[in-house]
Design a protein that fits this description.
Blueprint lengths: L10 H13 L3 H42 L22 H16 L20 H20 L9 H33 L19 H12 L21 H24 L54 E9 L6 E7 L5 E2 L7 H4 L2 E3 L5 E6 L4 E7 L8 E10 L6 E3 L6 E3 L43 E2 L2 E2 L25 E2 L2 E2 L11 E2 L8 E2 L7 E2 L11 E2 L2 E2 L2 E2 L4 E2 L6 E8 L10 E9 L1
Parallel strand pairs: 16-19
Antiparallel strand pairs: 1-7, 1-22, 2-6, 2-21, 3-7, 4-7, 5-6, 8-9, 8-20, 10-11, 12-13, 14-15, 17-18
Helix pairs in contact: 2-3, 2-4, 2-5, 3-4, 4-7, 5-6, 5-7, 6-7
Length: about 600
Amino acid sequence: MNHHPPTRGARAMVALAAGSLLLGLGSSARADVAASRACRKELAIAFGSVVKTGLKGADSCHKAKDKLCTAGSDRANCNIVTSTDFDPKGKYSTAESKATTKIGQKCAAGDPALLNYTGDPAHLDDAAGTVLPLIDQTIAGNSNATEGGFDLPCDKAASKCRETIAKSRTLIINDILKNSSKCQQTIDAVSSSFGPLDSNCIMTSGQATKAIKNINKACGGLDVNTILPFVSGCSTSPGSAPQIADCVVTSAVASAQNLAKDIYSVTPPSVCGNGVVEPGEQCDDGNTTSGDGCSATCEIEGLTCTPVLTGPGATSNTHRVETVSITTPQPLGGVVIHLGYPRFEAGIPGTGGSSIVQSRLMTLQNAGLAELNDDETNQADVGLVNLNTGLASGQLFKVTYDNCVAMNQNICSRNPNVFGCCDNPADPNQFQIPPGSEICSIKGCATFKPSCTTDAQCGNIAGDCQGGTCATFKGCATFQPTCTSDAQCGGISGDCQGILCATDDSACIGAGQDNSPEFGTCVFKCTTHPPVCSNGHFPLTGAGTCDNKNGACPSNNSCQSQVGQFACSVDNPVDLQGHPVNGVTCAVNVVEAP
């Protein structure tokens, strides 16, 4: 189910890749291809014109109702494309008729571009007969959702709020359709086959931020109980301007993206839950229940690291958040960032470009297109496009990973499924073990320094008995410290027997381990060179134990910090015209988070 990430925004690269294909076409084939390209271009122009006319009709109708300022003005008729309120001069019906005529002139029967319209059995291969009813439904549904059908109180500020909502949603929908069609035409120009809208061309709008700002400004001062709930179908009671703005933008983007896809292809919808994996589905287990490996929308669940950190002490680090920044000499129209990460210790649920995967991406700059693709190896890819203002230097996006191993645990370089090796000489719980020596420590040695009168009571560490206490006592070979109370034995109840601590962790002798209560079991103490396991003497997962040595790595490994496993690289950065840009770099910062 893996999906290889597409190159985002690299239109020039697409042209080069397809050049040899075009050169190999015969004159007849080139003519047929040219006709299909002309057909596809007309489909986008004609349907786009209908949408623009319909949105304008709805907005004009609502504005006229605002001026009437009367109860019972039948404002809901503004959301019905067949009503005379919506289309008093017949402009919308005329636009649909013109679109049908022009498409018929440019798209001959049997043209491959028309074979994409199979969603309506009554209009097979009939683009106009299939798409125009969908445009009607979308304009009506979106107008009802964003502008609503309530008769407004006679309030100038409320009318301004509603008109701002209308202008914003119309601007966003037209913007997305324009950019999506422009993107698809660029791909069609170097292609000899004509399928659905390319996934690279499913745009978001660079106007979204501006729209939210304008709606909040126009609607923010309205009374949340008596007026604001009636200015939009997005309103609730009591309403809030930010809630309305987010709803309007989200609805407009969704409507526009669906229209953009309908313009190029309408096929029967897949049926999730029928047990058959159909186009657009990653899985189908015969039900629409999430949490069983196949989601309610037939997308693969899981495929992340396991188990995710939970329980006491893990609430603050169940996730890792990776922030990616770029440095670029000029605004970028598009770029792909490849992300490396330790997949046994961190993971992204889902696979490919599913909505489950997308939920882990947050853009930090405006982007007409932003997509995260996880290929289930050690790499994920993020593609971004902004053909309006471009992508600038600075923080670009964040990706949230599941966290399965705390980041302060090191991993073995060639066997990242092995974690817990130690490689930090600055850690006070790590110390050098002379080769061949036998070292252990009493229980509680991490916090306990026994009393002494001689260095012998400190494990024969020269000069370690200072002021009656072992200053740097770390271990012993066959030594049990003297005691007069359990406190001198690490607080182990009943351990001071006679004058000797009864438990000296003798089981750890020769293993370079510490069985102190702070660590629970024997924990390896090391410096920059952990022990290396021979072949066949190493576990498959978990903290390394081989030949009675914890914290070790298999042969030909080094012990590395997980932080160093998070890396990024830049691929195919292009400017606003699709030309390659040199000198673009990226950097990552990773922190643990709840």
